[in-house]
Amino acid sequence: MLGHSHATSGALAWSAAAVALPVTVLTYPAVQAGVAHLGPVDLVLGALLTAGAALLPDADHPNSSIAHVLGPVSYLACTIISKAAGGHRKATHSLAFVAAVTYGTWAGVHWLGKPFTLALVFFLLALAVRALHLCPGGDGARSWGTVVVLAASGTFVMDHWLADKPSWLPFAVGLGSLAHILGDCLTDRGCRLFWPLDTRVRLPIIERTGNFVETWVISPLFVVGTLAVLWYAITRQP
C-alpha cells in the first residue's frame, strides 16, 4: 500500500478504536481512573499522530515516504534500519515491531516526559504531512523543508494541548504500526507477521500497490470514514 493509504488507515483505526474501546484500553498501562472517554482534542490529535505512526514500519525501505521525510537525515537512518532489519517487510513488519514501538513509546513518555513526547510528536506530524501530501512533492529541500516547518508549527500548537505524559500515545503508535502491517498483508507479498519465523501472512485483495482501487476508492473511503467516526465520537459526548 502507498504511504497515503497507510496514513488514512491509521487515522481511521484510531477513530474506530476511540469509539469502540473503553478508555482503559486506550491508555493502558497508565489506566485513567474515573475517565469515561477521551476529549475532542485528544481524539483529533490522536488521529493525526496515528496517521503518522502508520508509516513507521516502512523505516526498513530507503525509498519509502519515511526515508525522505526529513531529507538526508531520515534517508541515512532508514538505510541503516533496512540493513539491520534484513530488508523490506521483515523485522519491522511484524507483531514484534508493534510491541517494540508501543513499549518504547510508553517508556519514553513515562521516564523522559515532555521532551520525548514533543520530539515524537514532531516526527509523527512530519510523517503525516508527508503521507497526506500536505507538502510539495519530490525529495528535495523544498519538500522536506516544508515538512519541517509544518511539523514544527504543529508541535508548537500541540504543546499547549498535550499533557506532559499523554497516556494514549503508546496505543496510538502501536495501532498505527499495526494498521500498516495489516494493510500490507492485503497485498500478494504479504508480511512476516510472526518474524523471525519465515512464514508470510497474506490475503491478496490489492493486486498492485497504487492501483485505481487503492488510490481512488479505498483511501478516500478511509478519509470519509475517519471524519464520520470522529464527528460521531465528538458529538455524542456530553
Overview of this protein structure:
It is a single chain. The chain is mainly α. The protein has one domain (3-235). The chain has helices at 3-20, 23-26, 40-53, 72-85, 95-112, 114-131, 141-158, 169-184, 212-235. The model has no long low-confidence stretch (mean pLDDT 88).
Q: Note the gap between the termini.
A: 38 Å
Q: Can you tell me the residue ranges where pLDDT is under 50 for at least 5 consecutive residues? A: none
* Tally of domains: 1
**What does the largest sheet look like?**
none
Whole-number mean pLDDT: 88
> Which structural category fits the helices and strands?
mainly alpha
What share of the residues lie within helices?
A: 55-70%
Report the total helices: 9
Tell me the overall shape: globular
Radius of gyration from CA coordinates = 17 Å
The arrangement of helices and strands along the chain is HHHHHHHHH
Report the count of strand segments. 0
> What proportion strand?
under 5%
Organism: Nocardia bovistercoris
Keywords: Hydrolase, Membrane, Transmembrane, Transmembrane helix
Protein name: Metal-dependent hydrolase
GO molecular function, one term: hydrolase activity
